[in-house]
Structures are given as structure tokens and as C-alpha cells.
Specification:
The chain is mainly alpha-helical and 51 residues long. The protein has one domain. 69% of the residues lie in helices and 0% in strands. The chain has 2 helices and no strands. The relative contact order is 0.11.
């Protein structure tokens, strides 16, 4: 049986997304529920733009 190694590649996009989301909440001075809605909607629009 051959010795296999798993290589994990992490680009760090999750932390960049989180920082961007927190910046957006603070910059736009969003209320709590608007921020929660942004957590759900913003990744979709970001994905469409990056696509």
C-alpha cells in the first residue's frame, strides 16, 4: 500500500469574507436585523459579481 499524503489548500477567503461583512455593517451603520439580512443576501451578490 502506497503512502499517501493529503494536502489542504486554504486561500483564506472565509476570513476575508467575514472582515468585509463586518466592515459593511459598521460602515453602513446597519441595525441588527438589517445586518442579519445582509449576512444572508450579501454572499449571493458577491458570488454573482466574482463569478
Amino acid at each position: 500500500m502506497a503512502n499517501t499524503e493529503k494536502v489542504k489548500v486554504d486561500t483564506g477567503m472565509g476570513i476575508i469574507w467575514f472582515i468585509g461583512w463586518m466592515f459593511t455593517i459598521a460602515y453602513a451603520e446597519l441595525s441588527f436585523w438589517t445586518a442579519v439580512l445582509g449576512l444572508i443576501v450579501w454572499p449571493y451578490y458577491l458570488g454573482v459579481a466574482v463569478r
